[in-house]
Amino acid sequence: MIHINKFNSYLTFKISSEISMVNKLIQETEKFISQFEIKNYIDLMIVLRELLLNAVIHGNKNMPERIVKCSIKKLEKRRFKIEVEDEGSGFDYKSLDMKIPEDPRYIQKRGYAIINALSDQIEFNSKGNQVTVYMSIN
Fold it and tell me: Which residues share a beta bridge with 122?
């Protein structure tokens, strides 16, 4: 299941918690970003993919009946706001380690480190099931 609402400066999505839906969202977001004639948006796609995968896998536990909500809004110039919310119980975001693991073969717990490295600001709701990221694209 995927629902997309397109507006001039923002997109909103609702998807079922399936990995295949993440790929569809990425494709739709690329189309949206292309209207602003921004060429180097790969960092935004990486951050969006990490946020969506966290919501599907960790937040909603890969349960297709659970929904992930997402919005991507173009702010001023080359700045964007991404919000992702899942239906999970949330997590203790205050204990997140935002450092990239020293061993590149270690693939666990690196998502938020990558998001942090590529974004300007990260905010969580009190429950820990919604994250807002602000990004400037060079």
Answer: 133
Question: Of 53, 64, 122, whose CA–CA distance to 93 is shortest?
Answer: 122
The domain made up of 2-136 is a member of CATH 3.30.565.10? yes
What is the sign, positive or negative, of the torsion defined by CA atoms of 16, 133, 71, 127?
A: positive
User: How many whole angstroms separate alpha carbon 96 and alpha carbon 60?
Assistant: 19
CA-CA-CA-CA dihedral for 30, 34, 36, 40, to nearest 10? 80
Q: How far apart are CA 4 and CA 70, in angstroms?
A: 10
CB atoms within 10 A of CB 94: 7
Mean pLDDT per block of 10 residues along the chain (138 residues) reads: 92 96 93 88 95 96 97 93 97 80 68 91 96 93
**How many beta carbons lie within 10 A of that of residue 122, not counting itself?**
19
Sorted by sequence, the CB contacts under 8 Å of residue 64 that are 6+ apart come out as 16, 17, 18
- E-state strands within 36-113: 67-74, 79-85
